[in-house]
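On clarity, I found the account of how folds are encoded harder to follow than it need be. Since the whole study asks how a given chain folds, the encoding of that fold should be made plain. For illustration, here is how one protein appears when written out as sequence plus structure tokens:
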Amino acid sequence: MELREYFQENEGVGVLSTSDAQGNVNAAVYARPTIKQDGSVSFIMTESLSYHNVQSNPKASYLFKENSSWRGKRLYLTKIGEDDDAALIEPLRRRKYSEQTEKKIKPLHLVHFRVDRQLPLID
């Protein structure tokens, strides 16, 4: 099954793990990625620790656990670019907030990653 189909058909919990240039790690809950035509994946990121980490260290890992099972995916990633254009980001947002909350949200970035390796959640 292709990644695009997999993430369209499965719901669950995802965790993006990153580290800074000194190797200090961070893990954060992230929605399912957007899968592009070329097989790369994209995440909408605020200016959080994860975002700052991938600015200095392009390597990341995304773990996805399907709801009600121990099935899932582990993706090993390398950042290949990013877009800050709201016209690109807005259609990809799955969660909408009140106008008041939207004003408090930090700037959004669409960060693109190459999938270097893909493994099941449990071998």
User: Anything to note?
Assistant: The chain has a mean pLDDT of 90. Residues 23 and 84 are 26 Å apart (CA to CA). The longest strand covers residues 108-120.
